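Hi team,

Filling in the usual template for the complex we talked about on Friday. All components are listed, including any nucleic acid strands or ligand strings, so the model treats them as one assembly.

SUBMITTER: L.P.
PURPOSE: interface mapping
COMPONENTS: two
RESIDUES: 1042
SEQUENCES:
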Amino acid sequence: MKRVLITSICLVLVGLVTQAQNNLTLYNMKPIPQKFYANPANPSDAKIFIGVPGASSNYLDFGITAFKLQDLVDAIQPDANGDTTFRLSEFTKGFKKKNYISVNNSVDLFSFGFKLKNNYFFLNTSVINNARFTAPGDFFQFISQGNGGSNLNRKFDFGFGLDMLSYAEIGIGYSRKLLDEKLTVGGRVHFIKGLATFSTESSEFDFTTDKNTFDYYLQSDIEINSAVSFNKLPAISPFDSTFKPSDSIGFQEVVNSFFKGGNRGMALDIGVTYKHTDKITLSASITNLGKINWNTNTYNWRSRDPGATYQFTGLEIANALKFEERDIEEAFNQLGDTLRSVFRLDNNTESFSTGLFAQFYVGGNYNLTKNHNAGVLLHGSFYNKTIDPAITLSWNSKLTRVLGVSASYSVANNSFVNAGLGFTLNGGPVQTYFVSDNLLGIFAHRKVNTFNMRAGLNVTIGRGEKKDKKSKKNKS
Amino acid sequence: MTSRVIFSILHFQVIYMKIRNLVVVLACVALCSGCVKDIKETFKTIKSVDQVQWDPTIAVPLVNNRVTINDFLNQTSTAFIEIDKDNLIHVVYRSQLASLKANQVLRIPLQHFDGSFGLLQFHVNEFNNTGKTEVNFSTIFNFGVDDTEIDSIIMKACGVMTSLTSDFQHDVTVNITIPEIVKNNQALAFNFNLPYTGSGSATASQTKDLKTAFFDLTKSGDQSHSQLLANFKITVTKVGNNPISTNDKLRFVTDFTYNEYEVLYGLIKSSDISPGKVDSLKFDLFRGVDSSLKDVSFRIGDPRIKVILTNSYGIPIHAFINEFSTLSSDGNKITLTGYPDPLVVPTPSKQQIGQTLKDSFELNKNNSNIDDVVSNIPKYLIYGYAAQANPPGTTQRNFVTYNSELTVAVDIHIPLQGSADGFVLNHEISLDSSFSNMEDIEELDEVTLRLFMENDFPIDVDVQIYFMDDNGVTLDSLFETEQYLLRSAMVDGSGKITGPSVYTLDISMNKERFEKIRESKKGLIRAKLNTYKGSSPQPDVKFFSDYGLSVKLGIQAKGVFNIKTK
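RESULT (copied from the run log):
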């Protein structure tokens, strides 16, 4: 247990990489039915809830991990002549090995759930879009610092990447209370229709300068897949200059593409909560465990010779002792031909699969009073065989019957400055909520590099507190 | 009471909630206004940037090449190289000196022949009786060429023109044949018609191309050498009652022009065919060597000079060398010894007409003083010869062709095997214009040229460049001390290398030094050369054809660029 804890903390502190649809604050917000997305064993406290179509859950997050605005401002300093100078190398030196710009968004088209004795049923239809652009910090450091001096022999990673995934899903969830309501287990199955994807499976392009001879060593391994479910659109082609999405797509085609054709997938969420004592509740879940198989309108680019290395030792000029301009031109032409040959990409239309952004949550809550609890949550999301960890401390409170508030602090998204806030307003059966894992961006925009929020409108019926009040009254 | 207390509590709770909400709202407003101000401040800071400072250090591999001895010599020398069976390189200098050609000493000038004839009374009587008369006669054309007895000629180019003028007031026909001139198996012949036109003389002329024609000028019967027999047949036919007399004449002129022979047989006159000059061969293997240095030690393994004689004259030639010496750059002259005197010139026989025969002899350290000559670091080889074709006393009949020629070629073979020490090369260059437009690189802080070399050659080269002002005062030097430009490969006991010498040479220049060098007007490149000196005494080394110098030239430049944004 101790080892797991230490490992978890190390992962949080060392492996801060990127972000996904985290739900770090939402996880502990009891009144909001959508917390089911983070842990299917954590159902709504309403007997019935109906998400307002198109408005029950709108999620948006934006993140950039390369720098914060403060880094930009810090790189601006007056020089010896008093000129305000932006020092490029100062600015880029803090860039990480991999830097991301990500935009994620999901919209619930329709959702509802209801309780039946110890069972809870949940259904949702959602459209989810994830986009992530990967930029190697080495590239910017190469541009700003050059490859000489202390960068000789340094392996620069020039592997850019772009990953976009758009899909629609129908999720059917179920949870059940067991062991005298101490234990709740739940699960959700996602039936997925992939809409479009652009996936950089491998984007290795390494560049090294030999410290003795200044020779360049270039190594490349590229694999990119794309697909789109709308028949009238060609597969997304970054290397095809003739690509023009000129055909307009009618509504009927969009609807048809949802129900017909391939590009389908499946995913599973499973979760558990355990009420250890009246004070302590433990929980854990794994979500989005699945993949989409893309087999319609696919397009692939792969290195013909993956991992091929080319050593550039300088121009080999004919008549070296008395060369002319055309000898240099010829040498450059030969170099171009060689590079094209060594790093050639092959095109295919093979099927492929993409994993979803699988995540896990492990949490514990301590009930300070009936309406206040403190929580700790370990979170991880998986992307490209890397784990993106986070840890969240939260205080969750039901201030009044109407107002519920959660405040959180997270170490996540490559930043120690993430203060989240969530609230719910329940006006009768109508529930409005807003949750963000990082609201500091609004107030301390220089210090943060991510922002996310989820907001929605639900109709909730039979929330547990009335029952509690009634039972209290009866007791008194 | 209870209800009042409850009411008070509820009232307090309502007030408390209102105040709390108010505090929350005020806090949010304060935070937001602070936030907007902060964002404005951030953008103001970004907009205030005057310049972007870019200070990269960039390393680039510029050139990667392997050069061999061949590359060097092709660019720097008149020499060429030969590889012997052991792969050893020989540097070969070649020059040749040609004699006068046959067409310069033996020419056939324009040959002019003319004459006239009239009728005898006998012919006049016959003409008056029959209205026609026929006359036949012959004449000799003396084909004269200086003191040469010509037996025959095959013409390379020749033209003949014959013109006739008739005073007869009657029709005349003339047939001329020269049976000793044959072309395409037919003797040379002219046929003329000279009809009387009613007044004055009748004239006619004809030309013939005698290219490739054979002229038989052999002595036979009454005919001597160089003579041709021309036969005339003249027929006069009466026209009306016009008069005729023995005073009427028929005149002829025959000219042989453009007489170039392909082959000329006979007894050729004695001629001096000497080239009339000496030839000098620039020996630039040691170009730039400062010969004022007295401690130069230099030895070449087995130098040789090969003299090659070629001849296409079909006549005996008496030839001898009248100059064969070397001159060093300090004017020291050494005459070569050991060559044959006279020279033995091969002569083609009649069966070898058109061929060029070759013979040669070689001077080496065993039969000449060539070792001394080469050790003197020669700059020029000077040689000349005299030659006489058909020296007096020759009675043998022979031949020449139009382009017959004697040449004497000299090949100096220097096997790249030996040792050298103390060679110093000095070369001054003008830098005035080189640094005049260097403002563009002011942003460079430091530039390092890196030479990465793999040297197969068993040779060390120390180099230094001095930068000087107009008065020759040294302002700076490229290196603090002389640096190895080339570091010799290791050599085994047989003079072969055991492996390449691999090393890196950095030439760095910072802004301060570069400013100093920009002031310089000229540069002195000074290089010291020696072959491998790994053991004592200094061993002989050999240069093989697979030796080369692999050079990778890279550059590393550190700069600070301030890119203005306003």
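MY TAKE: Residues 57-71+421-564 of chain B form one domain. Helices of chain B lie at 2-47, 69-76, 102-105, 121-130, 370-375, 511-518.

Thanks, L.
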